[in-house]
Amino acid sequence: xxxxxxxxxxxxxxxxxxxxxxxxxxxxxxxxxxxxxxxxxxxxxxxxxxxxxxxxxxxxxxxxxxxxxxxxxxxxxxxxxxxxxxxxxxxxxxxxxxxxxxxxxxxxxxxxxxxxxxxxxxxxxxxxxxxxxxxxxxxxxxxxxxxxxxxxxxxxxxxxxxxxxxxxxxxxxxxxxxxxxxxxxxxxxxxxxxxxxxxxxxxxxxxxxxxxxxxxxxxxxxxxxxxxxxxxxxxxxxxxxxxxxxxxxxxxxxxxxxxxxxxxxxxxxxxxxxxxxxxxxxxxxxxxxxxxxxxxxxxxx
Length: 301
Fold this sequence. Notes:
alpha+beta
């Protein structure tokens, strides 16, 4: 059976199996998510973490810091060199109604290689980032916006916190944060905030734009799991993140349904927000670790 026939059988089965997730009354479920506090992150821009070897604003305590506690809770190890996640992605409109879904496979080679395969009834789409440049099947030249959106798949994972810390990225503990858990419950959740200066691809030269963002990770004080990754994304990817005149959009990824695979906790559900609304949700059914992945799969056609 060739690859095309396999996809024609597997994709419909995956989509049907996940249909219950997509048709679950989205307004109610997403309404509870929208009830979370979504303030601007701009107040943190007045206290940027250093971009050089300076120790200013960096946390130095004799006990385990927030990232170390989270690393231990997740069971993360630097011995993990890659991962493969399979499942589905469900897209929502501005009213919180599911409009489309596709079977999904995401390959990651740490720290910043990614390949995303999307299988729809109408056909397949493949895109990726090879640590130097983004690419997409069937597209010869990507726009700056397309390239930015593809690179961003590198950030939509909680282990990014551990990977960037291992790479020596500047780290700052940014205090506590309290959010409402749901609209139907008065319960509140307290998080420890961690700020990382996250760079995807080559570091930008002075005065030149690179993919560098100030990413805030919310670590649940109860179980030390990374619940959220959040950052301000410039509307124009050609502008610097520290330009006070730049317009930003609030981007957020919430992680849930934790499942331990190969001794490590992985989120089997990721809810992605743009500008305070949910635009897609990823539901994972399988995660594989340390597979035999050729470098070529992360390179464009």
